[in-house]
Request: fold
Amino acid sequence: MKLLEIHDLKTHFFTDAGILPSVDGISFEINQGEILGVVGESGCGKSVTAMSILRIIPEPPGRIVAGRILFDGHDLVSMPIEALRKIRGRDIAMIFQEPMTSLNPVYTVGEQLREVLSLHLGLDDDAARARIVEMFSLVGISEPAMRVDAYPHQMSGGMKQRVMIAMALCCSPRLLIADEPTTALDVTVQAQILNLLVKLRDERGLGVMLITHDLGVVAETCDRVVVMYAGRVVETACVQDLFAHPSHPYTVGLLQSLPDAAKPGSRLQTIPGNVPSPLNFPTGCRFRDRCSRASSACSLEPPLHVVGDGHEVRCHHPYQGGEHEHAIA
Amino acid sequence: MNTPLLDVQDLKKYFPVRSGLLRRVVGHVHAVDEISLQIMPGETLALVGESGCGKTTAARTMVRLLDADGGRILFRGQDITHLEGDALRRMRRHMQVVFQDPYASLNPRRTVGEIIGAPMVLHGLATASDVNDKMRDLLVQVGLQPDYLSRYPHEFSGGQRQRIGIARALALEPELVMCDEAVSALDVSVQAQIINLLADLQAGRSMSYLFVAHNLSVVRHVAHRVAVMYLGRLVEVAPTAELFEDPRHPYTQALLAAMPKAHPVRPRRSFVRLGGEVPSPVSPPSGCHLHPRCPVAEARCKTLIPALVAVNSCHIVRCVKELPRTA
Reply:
């Protein structure tokens, strides 16, 4: 069942230097009980997409200039802000990259969760406290009853990220937007947090939009993947297809440049050049300056090809029919 | 047997913990606790571990950016532990550093030419007349345009800045370069470019690298040997292939298990191999520091600090399971 549908979303930033088309006509959907990975390098628009869903783009300079975001059939873009406030935090929750700066240092973590519970569910203090303890044990916080009264500075980074997840989940949302939730954490703690997201998907049918730049995290947790480059979606596929038959030259380049893909000590494959600045994205295909398959046709907008079941790519010269199988040994 | 380029013996680095109104010293963090390591000429040694394990402090102490509180550091056989003043400055030429943050580690008010050229002139490796030619050569070697010399750091992307940082380190023709998370802040496609660059430069100049990193995929690719740290102590040192194929310490095993692999597998394996989190280094657990989190801990792990045991001539590990059985 489709939980969220994004249709042709455009979020632009209007700055003194010019218009930045950070998100420029993207479409994808998230199903119930599914972890959708959104991957791309810095500046590709993945965080701006997440912020657009909840309409927390700083305005000005940013603005959603076109597109629809349907949640349960209701358009979040055109919805009055009062109606959206009832959805934020209750039906759609978000966790951010920096657990260190996302919690208010002068309130206990319990007070910060209680606010959410009384606002959205109207729980009184006792009921809220019971609910918080339940949520803390769900996300793996040891001694949950004691931790309710702790201040953020008394907790480690991994513990604070668990508090953020508990806060995001305490109203039983149907969609969780997780923006690089484990980037600031150590690998052993990252593994614990990712395990938790998988468990919530399986046990509660939670839909998750997992934004990350780490293809290892994608391979291990996601069901489907959206690859973004320079404000556009370039490829959408289920996770097995994406890694086994990558189709867009950018996706192929990303997978090949991973150290995992190469023999230790050998030369890594690279993508030449750098990610273009949003101030001067190339016309047509935005990857063409860095692409080995580019031709004169690439100065025109690339068409959308369906290369497999649920596998779409936006490219003039996609890899097709197993042309790139076993690229990643 | 060759002499190691850098030979570190029982290195210690403590930081005082202050507390109360008078900021009295109430204890010490044993950030680096009796570490012994050797780096051979032309070798890449990786130092890995999670945040707070002391890997950066250890590396900085090894190249004399921090003063050691115990132990000895020998560079080509010469004791440099207590060098000061001019002697230390001359030694610095041979040991250079590439830092993690390509934005914070370059002076925004200096041009690329000033950043790279000043150390060359100071150390007498170039004169005012040939410094420009040498800098242009260097920029080409790190993959930048020679006419970038008059530009400022803000004009460059992260990957380009890291190339400038590498050029600055190489300007003095060092024998050892310490790379402190040098590729961690970069995007994947750019990270691959920088890893290749470091490999090319090493092959051309037979430099050694001390590579501090937390990304094990990168470490597996670049390092010849790997040293794993946990809360200030070395827990395992082995050649890279051997460490990844036959990790002996439970912590090394957990680190490898937690490392996300970039190919989807079915059925999905369960992630968690190690519960809890790294304890505060101010009051580390007694005995083996890992015992509260270790899935195979025994009663004696609470009190016994296991010695480093040789698995073979180049693989050492610190775990009671590996201690020789006594009758």
